[in-house]
Write a structure and sequence with these properties.
By secondary structure, the chain is mainly β. The protein is built from two helices and 14 strands, in the order H-E-E-E-E-E-E-H-E-E-E-E-E-E-E-E.
Length: 238
């Protein structure tokens, strides 16, 4: 709420300043900032535990949030918009083990017997978008944008559902990724509203293990997924 309050004040200032100075997006260069929310529903390609494929994988993701800085290079009705963005997302992944297998070892730790875990991620992302102003009549503008986004996963924390203990990452992990982004933006003076959809071009893979102090066992997990996300944001142009 505090962040939204600060953003509201900035938007009011930007609105007043834009009306007074009569500047718009025909400027050759501008930069801006935005805050927003994201809805993440990654596509799980596979989840394996000790080499056994989990079944009935179900994702429950909470609404995430983002903050971004960017610059815009305007060329008539077109523009190039590189930027840097921070994203936070968290949720839970539930699953079941296949029937007809020996589950004695697989259920030897709480992590497996709980058949679910929480995941929390923080990423730094660098989009480079090409935009086209479909409507450009001061003070209103409607633009379409598309382009690649480079992604680096800064942190990824796992914990079993209903248990404060955490997973310990091990083995190889792929923190880098590339997403394809497309979206629309509506602006009035220096205020704008964005809607984006992005999909992972490459598959992310994380190998991690869970070690418990209660039992001398360790379970190895492997998660393969692909980004599938929508985001909404409000911002200002300076």
């Amino acid at each position: 709420m505090k962040k939204l309050g600060i953003l509201t004040v900035l938007l009011i200032i930007a609105f007043t300043g834009g009306a007074q100075t009569q500047k718009n997006e025909t400027e050759g260069f501008s930069f801006g900032a935005k805050l927003g929310f994201s809805s993440t529903l990654p596509i799980i390609n596979s989840l394996t535990i000790e080499g056994v494929e989990a079944q009935n994988v179900n994702l429950q993701y909470k609404v995430g949030y983002l903050a971004a800085l960017f610059c815009r290079i305007n060329i008539d009705r077109f523009f190039i918009m590189p930027g840097v963005e921070w994203n936070h997302a968290d949720g839970s992944i539930n699953y079941s083990l296949p029937d007809g297998i020996d589950q004695t070892y697989l259920k030897s730790t709480y992590a497996v017997s709980s058949e679910g875990f929480n995941v929390e991620t923080n990423t730094i992302e660098v989009p480079v978008l090409l935009g086209f102003n479909m409507v450009k009549s001061y003070p209103y503008c409607l633009s379409f944008q598309a382009g690649p986004k480079l992604r680096y996963r800064v942190t990824e924390d796992f914990s079993p559902v209903g248990n404060p203990e955490t997973f310990k990452l091990s083995g190889e992990s792929k923190p880098y990724g590339v997403n394809a982004v497309t979206g629309v933006s509506v602006s009035i003076w220096r205020m704008f509203f964005d809607f984006y959809y992005e999909f992972g071009i490459n598959q992310s893979k994380t190998d991690f293990s869970y070690q418990t102090t209660l039992l001398p066992y360790e379970s190895n997990f492997s998660l393969k997924n692909r980004t599938n996300k929508m985001s909404f944001s409000l911002g200002i142009l300076f």
